[in-house]
Input
Amino acid sequence: MGFSIKTYNQIAERGLARLAQQDILCVESLDRADAILLRSEKLHGVDFPPSVRAIARAGAGVNNIPVELCSARGIAVFNTPGANANAVKELVICSLLLSSRGILPGIQFAREQAVDDRAALHALMEKQKKQFAGNELFGKTLGIVGLGAIGSMVAEVALGLGMKVVGYDPALSVEAAWRLPNQVERMEGLNNLLSVSDYVTLHVPAIEATLNLINADNLPAFKPGAVLVNFAREAIVDYKAVLNALDSGPIRHYICDFPEPAFRNRQDVTAMPHIGASTQEAEENCAVMAAEQLADYLLNGNIKNAVNLPEVSMPRVPNTRRLTFINDNVAGVLGQVLSVLAEQSFNVVDMMNKSHGDVAYNIIDMEGDVPENIEFLIGQIEHVTSVRLI
Ligand SMILES: NC(=O)c1ccc[n+]([C@@H]2O[C@H](COP(=O)([O-])OP(=O)(O)OC[C@H]3O[C@@H](n4cnc5c(N)ncnc54)[C@H](O)[C@@H]3O)[C@@H](O)[C@H]2O)c1
Ligand SMILES: O=C(O)CC[C@@H](O)C(=O)O
Output
């Protein structure tokens, strides 16, 4: 039986082609879809039909997906770590420059002057250009909050531009630490970072711990005249507190990817329409990675880059059927499943069992004629949340 995927948002053609190559259909309706592939569509409150076994975000953040509910229902949730990091890095560096010199107002000024005489126009520009002068990034301090895929790339370029870089990331993984340039000075607390940085850029996920991470309590800790850059998520910054801090200090500019009505006509806020990852390269990288991960999960039960399940991959053995199941990570479930298989006299040729927090995932390859009702039998076992016979 073929698989079908409900897609939301504009998914790059190269990613969709990977699905077509595997005979996986993209469908309009969620009703009988096996999986969902999306970018920023909000899935909170969506009633997933039982057919849905996996959701893939062509992007880094998964805050638009009800991950906890998916885990409880045995739905795998994938993302594409690092696939759009370069695009965001480039726009962050652009933002540092935009906030340092009168680039946007200067261009606007030049565009608006209706002076036909060339000499007069040139003279006007020379006279007025002092309004658009600014400062250099060289020698300034950049504070990076979140030193993962994007944070570490931003650090590297900023160091190349002659900036001093300080970082804060209490949850830094060993892998991310390896990627980080060793000139980045690690700060012990967020306020320490805020107090020494001329520019602060945020690269953390939107999770409970980062909600309003920048708020009325810590905004006074910023260096006078500092710039705040937010290409992470709107929920990480209390924007009302930021507007107060722009009005009465200490910060002088807020650059973000998340416009608010209250930002309209403010010269000290530069808000872009969530375009951090909007490059052809990033969109293709994300779509291809998400499509390949979904296809491997649907066709083979292998898991790569799931945020709620362990990394599991087992080569297929010819002439076997593969049973995969997800269960609450409690003792005895695998034993019960193996007993059911033994009662049916199936010969297990290979198997794998791994856990990730409260959830466990299993692959069992079996020889012989495995009837489809094995899914039903295994699904009856307490704590099993999802079963597939592939
Ligand atoms: N604007 C856009 O279009 C766009 C594009 C890509 C990513 N994003 C956002 O940026 C976020 C980061 O992306 P990434 O690819 O670098 O992710 P990543 O997972 O590689 O890095 C996130 C880092 O944040 C750290 N972190 C977690 N909690 C923290 C905390 N309380 N304080 C400091 N650090 C903390 C983690 O340890 C990790 O190192 C994503 O979750 C997403 O929300 C936005
Ligand atoms: O799809 C996009 O354009 C945005 C993706 C971005 O928000 C992410 O979390 O990776």
The first helix runs from residue 13 to 21. Residues 62 and 79 are 7 Å apart (CA to CA). The chain has a mean pLDDT of 97.
